[in-house]
Design brief:
8-stranded mixed β-sheet; 6-stranded mixed β-sheet; 13% strand; binds magnesium ion; 14 strands; binds adenosine-5'-triphosphate; 42% helix; 17 helices
Length: 499
């Protein structure tokens, strides 16, 4: 039925893709120094009203809000997974929302209800509800100028990620979600998710350097943005941070009259199987626990925190959490794929350390598939990967492949991955990939480095290496550098409908 009206899931994704800011506009803004600011929030408030909601409606969602440079998604996944286990045994929360970004395999995974991505039909319905409401509101109200810097009227609809954020509120309010876990997109203060005024709790995961153009080039400036999700009257948690960042978080919390609780690794995690078994993940889990506890305290008057042991549901939630594309291992015959969406200096070191540990007991060649599109500084991330590997007793990669984020050799991007935000000429010419290759060859002249146009080509190249294996050997493949790369790779390894 939906197809007759031209309003299928695919139609929604096509319409959504039309809301991407084209590369040329991004460049022009960058040159003019236009950054997200308070106007971005004012606009989101107008859009929310135009789709029929007041900011206070969001209170019904009991939002758990998470910002941070790394570990946001994992923290959110832990919190949501704990809540899901609690729901299973105790019937509360009634319905759990989980809003994350970016997506790995399909856009609709960004908006989950009770663990599952919203179905294609529901996604299409809610997507076009919002689409139509925004157009109608503009027709009746006329154009609104919120952005005084540019003096331009607000576009009819917000851009891609902001549109999905707006839509998520519609989905969760309609579906009567009573706890919604929200990952910020970029930063916090001016992020589209920050129109929530009374979250149940805010959590700030590990801070570091990323999104320098939007957020600033020091960890202090970045911390200022992230602290923007701390709200008067709501609980706030973080884990230990580098000192500059920690101070800014505390100052900002104090200004708002909030006592920001700094969590150690939760001692109740002793004996709990946190995967991967790494400090960073235990920090993410600790934050997830505190956030879930805060949510349960709000919605379930009888819930009592037990300071010495974790309830069974919490342990199950942590041990059974699924967060795809992060520290994932997949065996494919003689190839063992290690898949991790790390894309900052620190997280790439973390991923390399994890890979080195996984390879310690294996024999056979190691192969890297890497990309990061549209960020020139990524060429400097390569050194960290190599030195981490070496310092953890692994040699180096025998084979290194750089490819674009284009999924398939024949058909190009999967619809959910169409991206207008990168320089199309650079993708065609494999400019970034050649720069990576040159850098890697200078760091490790013995590596066999190749540049290939698509993810599919890169995977097939590594598959080809298994033909020359000796007895008992496997190829250890690491796919990292970009969540788009990792999502495309999972799609290829698992079939196009992988989710
Ligand atoms: N607390 C942490 N500190 C450092 N690195 C981390 C941390 N948590 C996760 N990572 C690394 O970053 C990768 C991405 O984790 P995750 O998806 O939780 O982060 P995110 O903050 O949501 O990142 P994104 O910018 O992709 O949204 C992980 O696979 C892991 O390699
Ligand atoms: Mg990020
Ligand atoms: Mg994320």
């Amino acid at each position: 039925m939906a197809s007759q009206t031209g309003r299928t899931y695919n139609d929604a994704i096509d319409a959504l893709n039309s809301l991407q800011t084209p590369y040329a506009t991004i460049e022009a803004r960058r040159k003019a120094g236009v950054r997200p600011d308070a106007a971005s929030i004012a606009e989101m408030q107008v859009y929310l009203r135009r789709i029929g909601y007041a900011p206070s409606d969001l209170d019904r969602l009991n939002i758990v809000h998470v910002a941070g440079t790394k570990g946001k998604g994992s923290t959110c996944a832990f919190a949501a997974s704990i809540l899901a286990q609690h729901q299973k045994t105790r019937g509360a929360p009634r319905k759990i929302g989980l809003f994350t970004s970016p997506h790995l395999i399909a856009v609709r995974e960004r908006i989950r209800v009770d663990g599952a991505p919203v179905s294609e039909d529901l996604f299409a319905r809610y997507f076009f509800d919002v689409w139509d409401r925004l157009a109608r509101a503009e027709e009746t109200e006329g154009e609104v100028v919120v952005d005084r810097r540019l003096g331009l009227p607000m576009p009819t609809r917000p851009i891609y990620a902001r549109y999905l954020t707006l839509m998520s509120y519609h989905v969760y309010l309609q579906e009567r979600v009573d706890v919604a876990v929200y990952e910020t997109g970029i930063g916090g203060e001016y992020d589209a998710t920050n129109i929530v005024e009374r979250p149940v709790a805010s959590g700030i995961s590990t801070l570091g350097i990323d999104h320098v153009f939007a957020l600033g080039d020091t960890v202090e400036k970045i911390a200022w943005h992230k602290a923007g999700i701390i709200k008067p009257g709501s609980a706030a948690f973080t884990i230990d941070q580098v000192s500059g960042a920690a101070n800014v978080l505390q100052e900002r919390a104090k200004e708002k009259g909030v006592s920001l609780k700094v969590l150690d690794v939760d001692s109740r995690l002793e004996g709990v199987n946190v995967r991967p078994d790494a400090l960073f993940q235990k920090k993410n889990a600790s934050l997830g626990i505190a956030l879930a506890e805060a949510a349960l305290q709000k919605i379930e008057p009888t819930f009592e925190r037990n300071a010495s042991t974790l309830p069974r549901e919490f342990v199950d939630g942590i041990e059974q959490v699924v967060w795809r594309g992060r520290c994932e291992v997949k065996a494919e015959g003689p190839i063992i794929w290690h898949i991790d969406g790390a894309h900052t200096v620190d997280s790439l070191k973390m991923a390399s350390k994890w890979f080195a540990g996984e390879c310690a007991s294996k024999s056979g060649p190691e192969a890297l598939i890497f990309n990061q599109q549209g960020r020139e500084e990524a060429v400097n991330f390569l050194e960290g990967i190599l030195s981490t590997l070496k310092s953890h007793g692994q040699g180096t990669f025998e084979h290194v492949v750089f490819c674009t984020n284009v999924t398939y050799a024949d058909t190009g991007y999967k619809r959910d991955f169409v991206n207008h935000q990168y320089d199309p000429d650079a993708i065609k010419a494999l400019t970034a990939q050649h720069a990576f290759a040159e850098k890697w060859s200078s760091l490790d002249p013995s590596a066999k480095v190749v540049v290939l146009p698509t993810i599919e080509d890169a995977i097939n190249h590594v598959r080809g290496l298994s033909k020359t294996l000796g007895a008992g050997e496997t190829v250890q493949g690491l796919i990292t550098g970009s969540l788009h790369l990792v999502g495309g790779a999972l799609g290829i390894l698992e079939g196009a409908d992988a989710l």
